[in-house]
Amino acid sequence: MKIVRKKNLLEIGLILLASVIFGLGRNYFLEPPLLLFKVRVRAIKPELQVQFGEADADLVRQMVGDPGVLLVDARLPELFSRGYIPGAVNLPVARFAAALPPLSPRLRSARLVIVYCGGPKCPDAADLAGKLYEKGFKDLLIYRGGMRDWARRGNAFAR
């Protein structure tokens, strides 16, 4: 009887392990992947290892038009001019030093900043969030799905 229970528990454990591995593997290849984990920012400085929470399309849609929330597009101005999430401002990570000063008052007055870029494989949003964090902005979320997810869900663009 004890041997049968151990065998059943072992089989259950193996089935659970296989299910988890299969599920994580499937999520890896989804476009965009499900938001299972926080985004890890590549360190700008070796001592800076910050994790940011994530926003999804539903949260971003709810926040559009909220005066206390600032949406920040990390893409280059050329891409931003082709379309962006309504209400977003452009702060390209590639031109951070020059673009930050005019936007700094709006960033400081926002109770929440949501940063996004082109899509889940674009590192610009995480890089920009890291730079903003270094400058003292702490209430940051990353919309990892970015423009690709926003468009895929049929949301409107501003130009």
Low-confidence stretches: 41-48
Shape: elongated
Share of β-strand residues: 5-15%
Q: Which CATH architecture of the largest domain?
A: 3-Layer(aba) Sandwich
SSE order: HEEHEHEHEHEH
CATH level 1 class label of the largest domain: Alpha Beta
Helix vs. strand class: alpha/beta
Treating each run of at least 4 consecutive H or I residues as one helix, how many helices? 6
Gap from first CA to last CA: 70 Å
CATH superfamily of the largest domain: Rhodanese-like domain
> How many domains would you count in the coordinates?
2
Main beta sheet, described?
A: 6 strands, mixed
Seen as an oligomer or otherwise, the chain set is single chain
Percentage of helical residues?
Answer: 40-55%
Work out the number of β strands: 6
Textual characterization of the structure:
This protein is an alpha/beta fold and 159 residues long. The chain contains 6 helices and 6 strands. Strands 1-2-6-5-3-4 form a 6-stranded mixed sheet, with helices on both faces. Helix 5 (124-134) links the parallel strand 5 and strand 6 (140-143). The longest helix is centred in the first third of the chain and has 28 residues, at 2-29. The N and C termini lie far apart (70 Å).
In short:
The chain has 159 residues and is of the alpha/beta class.
